[in-house]
């Protein structure tokens, strides 16, 4: 069997951090405040030693991509047009994909202020709870069959085709469901970041691979025992914000027996999200261009770059 991560350069964070030393992108206090507002536990060392070199690498690939799009258009004697560059972020439930995605979006905006960087999550393409129930797969939420992959493919295809306004459905962790009648509008992005557990997955019965739409991909990786801890910590945050809101999915947990609530959260992790990780998410790790490996406290200790 082919060894895992055989086709990657591996770097410790110290070595990786050197790659941005030559032309340093300074972050202003304002940028740092924005980053802290995004997630107050984020390590600013990670930002400068891991994420800044990463966004510089992505910028290089993006410039290459723009050149290639122009050359292609010239070759085909077609007018040049904006073809959005799409970045996929994959990894387990609760590993920190959305935090990574928002951080990349913020830093790419900082590095390329004239470019429009947009961000969506594939959570929006989950079937609504009622539909999951109808299909009898409520306990398989997050598994490949729980997403409307055709809608996601159409969405990505429309973005690449340059459709003026493309709409994505919206998912809420608070209601644990798709938000009815709400859409996120994506208007002519230069760069679109798509974050979700299924971004590197193979289709079950479609003709297209969603990963074919990605021009760059990142997998956020960590030991499942750590991810479980982060899952439980996030559960606690969700509980604490649910107290005063009976419409919140976590309300009954929040006002009920706390010990029972945590027992249930552990069970959800073991029976659903961990199974999903092992069966459907982890096998896609080796398709990513970059793997960010995290240790305790979300600190990134190793970076893998596809050769
Ligand atoms: N770099 C980080 N530093 C500190 N805490 C983090 C970091 N990234 C994520 N977290 C915390 O870990 C938990 C999970 O993060 P997040 O919600 O970003 O995960 P996710 O992978 O997007 O999950 P899901 O797929 O379920 O939406 C959250 O409580 C978040 O605050
Ligand atoms: C919405 C997903 C699928 C992915 O973000 C996940 O957070 C989820 O809800 N999983 C189902 C099991 C659970 O409640 O964690």
Automatic annotation (TrEMBL):
<keyword id="KW-0963">Cytoplasm</keyword>
<keyword id="KW-0547">Nucleotide-binding</keyword>
<protein>
    <recommendedName>
        <fullName>Pantothenate kinase</fullName>
        <ecNumber>2.7.1.33</ecNumber>
    </recommendedName>
</protein>
<keyword id="KW-0418">Kinase</keyword>
<comment type="similarity">
    <text>Belongs to the prokaryotic pantothenate kinase family.</text>
</comment>
<dbReference type="Pfam" id="PF00485">
    <property type="entry name" value="PRK"/>
</dbReference>
<dbReference type="GO" id="GO:0005524">
    <property type="term" value="F:ATP binding"/>
</dbReference>
<dbReference type="GO" id="GO:0005737">
    <property type="term" value="C:cytoplasm"/>
</dbReference>
<keyword id="KW-0067">ATP-binding</keyword>
<feature type="binding site">
    <location>
        <begin position="91"/>
        <end position="98"/>
    </location>
    <ligand>
        <name>ATP</name>
    </ligand>
</feature>
<dbReference type="GO" id="GO:0004594">
    <property type="term" value="F:pantothenate kinase activity"/>
</dbReference>
<keyword id="KW-0173">Coenzyme A biosynthesis</keyword>
<dbReference type="InterPro" id="IPR027417">
    <property type="entry name" value="P-loop_NTPase"/>
</dbReference>
<dbReference type="InterPro" id="IPR006083">
    <property type="entry name" value="PRK/URK"/>
</dbReference>
<keyword id="KW-0808">Transferase</keyword>
<comment type="pathway">
    <text>Cofactor biosynthesis; coenzyme A biosynthesis; CoA from (R)-pantothenate: step 1/5.</text>
</comment>
<dbReference type="GO" id="GO:0015937">
    <property type="term" value="P:coenzyme A biosynthetic process"/>
</dbReference>
<dbReference type="InterPro" id="IPR004566">
    <property type="entry name" value="PanK"/>
</dbReference>
<feature type="domain" description="Phosphoribulokinase/uridine kinase">
    <location>
        <begin position="86"/>
        <end position="234"/>
    </location>
</feature>
């Amino acid at each position: 069997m082919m060894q895992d991560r055989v086709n990657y350069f591996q770097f410790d964070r110290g070595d990786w951090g050197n790659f941005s030393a030559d032309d340093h992108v300074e972050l202003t206090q304002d940028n740092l405040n924005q980053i802290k507002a995004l997630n107050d536990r984020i390590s600013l060392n990670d930002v400068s030693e891991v994420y800044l070199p990463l966004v510089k690498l992505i910028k290089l690939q993006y410039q290459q991509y723009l050149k290639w799009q122009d050359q292609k258009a010239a070759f085909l004697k077609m007018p040049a047009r904006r073809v959005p560059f799409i970045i996929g972020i994959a990894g387990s439930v609760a590993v920190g994909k959305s935090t990574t995605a928002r951080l990349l979006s913020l830093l790419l905006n900082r590095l390329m202020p004239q470019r429009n960087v947009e961000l969506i999550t594939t959570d929006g393409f989950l079937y609504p709870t009622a539909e999951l129930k109808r299909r009898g797969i409520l306990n398989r939420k997050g598994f490949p069959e729980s997403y409307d992959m055709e809608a996601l493919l159409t969405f990505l295809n429309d973005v690449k085709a340059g459709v003026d306004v493309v709409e994505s459905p919206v998912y809420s962790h608070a209601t644990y469901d798709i938000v009815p009648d709400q859409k996120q509008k994506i208007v002519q992005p230069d760069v679109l970041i798509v974050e979700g557990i299924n971004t590197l997955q193979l289709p079950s019965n479609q003709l297209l691979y969603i990963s074919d739409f990605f021009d760059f991909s990142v997998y956020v990786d960590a030991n499942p025992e750590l991810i479980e801890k982060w899952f439980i910590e996030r559960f606690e945050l969700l509980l604490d914000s649910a107290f005063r809101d009976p419409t919140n999915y976590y309300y009954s947990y929040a006002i009920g027996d706390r010990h029972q609530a945590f027992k249930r959260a552990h069970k959800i992790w073991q029976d659903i999200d961990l199974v999903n990780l092992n069966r459907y998410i982890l096998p896609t790790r080796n398709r990513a261009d970059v793997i960010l490996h995290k240790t305790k406290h979300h600190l990134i200790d190793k970076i893998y770059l596809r050769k």
